Amino acid sequence: MLRNSLSRLSTDPNPEDVLGHLLVELVSYADASVGHIFIYDACPNTLNLKVRCHDGQVFWTPAEDEPILFQSPIPIEQTAIFTQLSAQPRLAILNQHEFEGNLWQGVPEWLQAKGYQATSCCILIVGERPFGLLAMAFARPVTFHLVEEEVILALAQQIALVIQLTLLSEADKQKAIVREQERSAQERTAELAKANDALRRSIAHLTTTESLQLFLRAVLQEVFQTSSDIHAAAVFSYQPDTHTIQMLELVLNGEAINIATDPRAEVYRFPVPSETAGDWHMLRPERRIVWIDIDDPVLNPTPDAIAWHKHQGHQLLNVIPCLLVSNPWDFRISLHHSPALQRGSN
User: Fold this and answer.
1) Positive/negative CA dihedral, 335, 337, 338, 339
2) Residue 202 to residues 46, 72, 216, 218: CA-CA distances in angstroms?
3) Are 124 and 102 in contact (CB under 8 A)?
4) How far are the Cα atoms of 3, 19, 203 from residue 23, in angstroms, in the given order?
5) What's the predicted TM-score (pTM) here?
6) Contact 74, 39 (CB under 8 A)
7) What is the pLDDT of residues 241-265, one digit of tens each?
8) What is the rounded average pLDDT of the residues 181-187?
C-alpha cells in the first residue's frame, strides 16, 4: 500500500488528486467510517477543512449534517490537541467515554448522532513545520497495534508532503501572477511614455507648422508610431452648413497621400452627406471611440467606403470623435490592418 501511494505521488501531476487518493487509502486501511483533512494556515492561526472521505468517495466541501464548525476557519486556540501533537507527533485516539471536553464544540453530538464510537487524529507535519490535521471517526471502539499506528503515521506523512507540494504550487502560481502583473505594468508604462512623446511632438508641430494641413499630417504620422498594426489614418471634417463630411488628410503606411490627385483616395475626394455615414451618427451622441468590424460592421460606413477598406486589406476601424466643447469639429479614423488585433478599451 505504501509503495502504491508513493508511486501515485510521483506520477500524478495533480496534487489534489493525490491528496484525495491518499485519504481514501488511509481511511480504508484504518477501517474508519469517515476521514477529514484540515489545512493549517499560520497567518490567522486556523485550521480549514480541505477534503473529506466517506464510503470511499472524496468530497471537497463539508457535509450538510456535519458540525457547522467545519464550514469556517477553526482557531487553533480551540484545538489544544493540535498544539500537543505539534510538539510530540503521534496518533491520538479517543473512544466514546473520552469524547466529553476533548473535542470541538458540536463534534461529540455529531459523532453520537452518526453512531460513531471512536475518533483519532494526527498532526500532518514535515520537519518541524505543521501543515494540517488528519481526523478519522470509527463505528467501533478503536485500538491499534504498533505496526498499524506506524503505517497510519507513514501515510499521514505522505499526505503532509502532498500538502506541502500543493502550497508550493500555489506559491509558484502567485509568483507567476505577480510577474505577469509587473510585465503588464512595464508594457503599460512604455505605452504611456510613447504616447507622451507623441503628444509632445504634436504640440511642437502645432507651434511650428505653417498650416493646418501640415499639422494634421504630422499628427497622423505620429499615430503610426503608436502601433505597428495601423495601416492607415485619416482626419475628416464635419461641415454643419451642408451636413457633409470631408476627408482633410490621409496617411497610408506612414505616407502622406494627396487626396486631390492620388487614385488611392478617390473614394474620399469629395464631401459625403453625413446621413449616409452610420458611424458619424453614433459618434455624435456617444462621444466615445467606436470600433467597427469590416466583415460584420454594426454601423456601416458608406458602401464605397467598405469596398475601399476591403481593397486596402483593413480589418477594423477605430473611429475617434474630436469635439470643441459640445460641437463636433472633426473625427479621426485609424484603420487597422491586422485581423488578430483585439479591440481596445474605450
Assistant:
1) positive
2) 59, 59, 9, 7
3) no
4) 15, 6, 69
5) 0.51
6) no
7) 888 888 888 888 878 888 888 888 8
8) 77
